[in-house]
Amino acid sequence: MMPIYQNGGFDYPVAMMLATLLGVGFGFVLERAGFGRANVLVAQFHGTDMRVLKVMFTAIATTAVGIGLLSGFGVMDVGKLVIPETFMWPQLVGGLLLGVGFVISGYCPGTAVVASASGHVDGLYTLGGVMVGSLLFGFVYPLVEGFYEAGDMGRLVFPDVLGIPWAVLALAVALMAVGSFVLAEWIERKVSAKQGIDAPSDPPRVRNRTLGALGAVAVGALVTLAVPEPEPAAPKAPELASLSAVDLARQIASEPDGVYVVDLRSPAECAKGGGVPGAMCLPADDASASFLATLPPTRPLVLVDADGAGAVPPAAGRFAGTAYRVEGGLAAFQKDVLTAPAPPTEATPEALSSYRMRAALHARFTGAAAPVDAPMPTVKPVQRAVKKGGGC
Amino acid sequence: MNPTYHKADWNPYVAGIALGLVLLLTYVLMGFGLGSSSAATRLAVAGVSVVAPDAVADNAYLGQYVAHGANALDDWMIFEVIGVLLGGVLAAYSGGRIKRGELLRGPTTSKATRIAFAIAGGVLMGFAARLARGCTSGQALTGGAALAVGSWVFMMAVFAGGYVAAPFARRQWR
C-alpha cells in the first residue's frame, strides 16, 4: 500500500538514501530544464521565455494525474499523504514577497542550489541570502507569530472543498495547464517580436506528443470513477472489541484517567445513578455523539449501555484508538462490581484470588469495608492505543 | 535564436513530465513531497548553533530545529538537497556547461550590483519561505500537485509578486 514509507515499508536510513536519490533526480531535471541560469528564470517575467510556467504546470498536472490514478485504483491512500497545510494569509503574503525576491535574485531557493552546482556564483550568493533571511525570520518571529498562524484551515485540498473526485480535478488541471501554455506561447511571440528577438523555438511536434500523452492518461484516469468506493469505515453498528465489567473496574481502579468511559443511557437515566463512576453521559442517538470520532486516540474508549445490547453511536467506529463496549452493560457492572461477591465455594487458588480481587473492587467502588485479607488487585491495564504517525 | 536557448536544455514540456514523475515517485515512496528552502534554514541554524547555541535554542521559531537535542542537519531535507546538488553537477557536466565562477548579469551591470541583487533577493526569499511554510519547491510544486488550496494561493501570489517587481529588477540584465 502506498505511500510506502508512511506504511512502514522501510526505515530511516533507507529513507535518507532515497532522499538523496530522489534529490539527484530533482536536481538533474531542474538543471536540464535550464533552471540553473538566472536569465532563463527571469525571462518568465519579461515574457520572452515562459518555460518556468511550462515546466511547473506540466509537472503539477503530471503528479496530480498520477495521484488521482493511483488513489482511484485504491493502491494509494491519499489520506496518508503529508500535504502542506493551508494558512491563507501568511501564504498569500509570503508568496508575494517570494515572487519579488525571485525576480530580484533571479532564482528561487531550489534553483539557486542547481545554479551553484553548475558553477554560477550568483546562485551561491542567493543561497547565502536565503540562509540569512531564514534566521531573520526566526529573530523577528515573536512579532509576526500571530500573522504566521492566521487563516489556519488545516489540510485543505480542492477535491474535498469542491466535492469533485481527484481524477476529474486532475484532468481539469491538465486542461488548464494546456490553456495557459497556449497563452504563454502567444505572449512569447508578441513580446519577442516587439523586442526584435526570436521567440523560443521548441519543436511543436514534441510539445503536442508530450501533452497529448499526458492528456490521454488524464482522460484514461476517469475510468477509476467506475471503481467502487471502498465501504466507509463506519457502518451503522461498528464492531467493537468487548471488555468485561470486571476488567473495566480494574482499569478505573488503577488509572482513573487512563480511559474514556461513555454511558449511553438517556440523561434522565444517568441522573438516577448506578452508572460507572466518572463516565460521561451521551446517548447513542445524540447528535453530539459524533465528537467521539475526534477524541485523541491516546486512551481507549469504553462504551457502556444498560444491558450490553443497545445501539452504539456510529462515530465510535471512527475513533482512531481502540474502542470497547462493556459485555452485559451496566447490568453486568452492577452484578459483578457493585454487588458484594459471594465467597468461593471451593478453595482453589484461582477461585480465591478471583474472589479477593472482586471483593477489593467492590470495596473500591462502593466504599464498603474490604475483607481483611483482600489484597488490592494486581492490575494489568487495558492495552493503550499505539500512537500513530511520525517519520518526517 | 532566442537569447535563453542552450542546446543541452530539454524541451520544457518533456522536463515538466520528468519533474512530475520525480515528484510522484517521492509521494509514492515517502508520502510527502520535495523541498529546498528549509535545507538552507537548517544549514543556517546548524551554523549559528556552533557559534551561539543558546541564541538558537532559546528562539521560539529556530529552536524547533534543535528541540530535544536534535541535530538540525539530520533531516530528510538535508539529504534531499545534497542529492539536488549532485544531480545538478551531473546534469551540468554531462551537458557540457559547468561554468566555474560565472556571475550571470547584464552586459552593462557591475559585478557588485548583481551580487547585491542576488543577496537581497535571497534574504527576502528566505524570510518569505519561512512565513509561507515553503518555497516554490515545497509549497507551489509539491502542494500544488497535491491540489492543496494554500499552495495554489501561494503559487498565484509568487507569479503576481514576480510580475509586479520584474520591471524594477530588470536593470541588472541590461
Structure description:
The complex is a heterodimer of chains A (392) and B (174). Chain A has 392 residues and is mainly α. Chain A has two domains: 215 residues, no CATH class; 99 residues, Oxidized Rhodanese, domain 1, CATH 3.40.250. Chain A is built from 13 helices and seven strands. Chain A is elongated and about 105 Å long. The C terminus of chain A is likely disordered. Chain B has 174 residues and is mainly alpha-helical. Chain B folds into two domains: 100 residues, no CATH class; 72 residues, no CATH class. In chain B, 63% of the residues lie in helices and 0% in strands. Chain B contains seven helices and no strands. The model of chain B has no long low-confidence stretch (mean pLDDT 95). At the A-B interface, α1, α2, α3, β1 and α4 of A face α1, α2, α4, α5 and α6 of B.
Features:
heterodimer; A: 392 residues; mainly alpha; Oxidized Rhodanese, domain 1; five-stranded parallel β-sheet; two-stranded antiparallel ribbon; elongated; disordered C terminus; B: 174 residues; 2 domains; globular
Indicate the overall shape of chain B: globular
- Average of pLDDT of chain A: 87
Secondary structure class of chain B reads mainly alpha
Largest sheet of chain B: none
Give the percentage of residues in beta strands of chain B.
under 5%
Q: Structural class given helices, strands, pairing of chain A?
A: mainly alpha
User: Strand content of the residues of chain A, in percent?
Assistant: 5-15%
* Uncertain spans of chain A: 385-392
Q: Describe the global form of chain A.
A: elongated
Percent in helix of chain A: 40-55%
